[in-house]
Specification:
Elements (H helix, E strand, L loop, with lengths): L1 H30 L6 H6 L5 H17 L3 H21 L7 H17 L7 H21 L7 H22 L8 H26 L14
Helix pairs in contact: 1-7, 3-4, 3-5, 3-7, 3-8, 4-6, 4-7, 5-6, 5-8
């Protein structure tokens, strides 16, 4: 009974973390109204369901794989994403950005749904880092006019970390007796959404591609 109680309590910490992290960007946004660029950066990853799905999937996959991937993936993605953001800020082109973002949600969802475990965690980090480049470029090219690029970049990196944390927190369901099935189901839903995003991105074409899905702004 004691072991069962502990197993039930542990995921609650993960859910509490996920719930708290989901409110963090809003709290920071309200607190930093005068920080030119920072607020926009904090809000931007939340503006598209394709960004949200992929970034949460990174956390879910890391939680599923466990250490050291648990921390390697949430480090690799924003690290390479920052590089992509710099390319976008400088106006340097990156082919297939919207397709890459949509495909990231599809593939990462499949990884979680199929419980894919690379032989070495570094390969998982390479995969998420590669996709981070596309997400970062999209953020960088959408810097609002007149706002500070450095603060904007800091904002979207922090917001991305929050989304990874939400995924890790939700990944705590793996500790439940049937938690593995729930985690795989979440991956399947993300993959399904990613497929929808990818269809939209491919149909738009490279010249007039727009974000695959836009989340409602507050």
């Amino acid at each position: 009974m004691h072991a069962l109680a502990c197993s039930l309590r542990r995921p609650s910490w993960g859910f509490a973390l996920a719930a708290w992290l989901s409110t963090a960007p809003l709290a920071l946004a309200h607190a930093g109204g005068g920080a030119g660029g920072l607020v926009s950066g904090l809000q931007h990853p939340w503006s598209g369901w394709d960004h949200i799905a992929a970034m949460v999937a990174v956390g879910l996959w890391g939680a599923q794989l466990g250490a050291p991937a648990l921390w390697m993936l949430p480090v690799a993605f924003p690290l390479i994403m920052a590089l992509g953001g710099m390319l976008g800020l400088l106006g340097l082109p990156l082919p297939g950005v919207e397709v890459g973002i949509a495909f990231s949600a599809l593939l990462l969802g499949i990884m979680v749904a199929a419980q894919v475990r690379p032989r070495h965690p570094a390969w998982a980090a390479v995969i998420v880092g590669f996709f981070g480049l596309f997400h970062g470029h999209a953020h960088g090219t959408e810097l609002p006019a007149g706002e500070n690029g450095l603060l904007y970049s800091l904002g979207f990196v922090v917001a991305t970390g929050v989304l990874h944390g939400i995924g890790i927190g939700l990944g705590e369901v793996r500790r439940w007796s049937h938690g593995s099935r729930l985690l795989r189901a979440a991956g399947a839903l993300i993959a399904l959404a990613g497929g929808t995003f990818l269809f939209g991105a491919l149909r738009s074409g490279p010249d007039d591609a727009v974000p695959a899905a836009t989340a409602p702004r507050s």
